[in-house]
Design brief:
alpha/beta, 7 strands, 18% helix
Length: 174
């Protein structure tokens, strides 16, 4: 089923079902391995994170440089499993969605269910196409990480598929 959803996910994440085609519009954030590690370490030290997790969506992506006239270059997903060590803690802080590719471990699946969150997949290899749904991109934290810096993206009809829903249903079948 096709659904058009505004982000942040103020409500409705629990209503999305594995297999739904979803078009996200609004604000999402990017963060990959190095940024997740820094956020996790900041939490351990009791420090504030670069953005509030509550109701937000993180896209596991590191863009290529923007071409003239574009806010961002190719913007395809990276493998989600590399963030699994850090993800349950962020979900417990209110993170409602993640976008990436590939399987998640059982601890992430349990945290998704516990927090009524959702895991979306973006199509790998379609970074140039996905970038067309990105209206703006702004580095908001960890600029020294280059492509792995945390970015705030404004998106319109960003295409994703619900892979794992708030009930634990999983398109990957495990």
């Amino acid at each position: 089923m096709e659904k058009y959803v505004n982000v942040p996910l103020m409500e409705g994440a629990a209503e999305l079902k594995a297999g739904d085609y979803v078009y996200l519009s609004g604000t999402i954030y990017t963060a990959r391995d190095a940024a997740h590690k820094r956020m996790y370490e900041a939490l351990e030290r009791g420090e504030q994170l670069p953005f509030a997790m509550e109701n937000n969506v993180i896209y596991y992506m590191g863009p290529s440089p923007a071409r003239p006239g574009r806010p961002i270059g190719s913007a395809g997903p990276t493998t989600s499993g590399r963030m699994d060590k850090y993800t349950p803690a962020l979900l417990d802080l209110g993170l409602k969605g993640m976008i990436g590719k590939g399987k998640r471990n059982p601890a992430v699946r349990d945290a998704i269910v516990r927090n009524s969150a959702v895991y979306f997949a973006a199509v790998g290899g379609a970074g140039a196409l996905l970038s067309q749904s990105i209206l703006s991109s702004e580095v908001i934290a960890y600029e020294d990480l280059g492509t792995e810096a945390i970015r705030k993206l404004e998106v319109k009809n960003f295409p994703v598929i619900v892979v794992m829903d708030a009930e634990g249903n999983n398109l990957y079948g495990d």
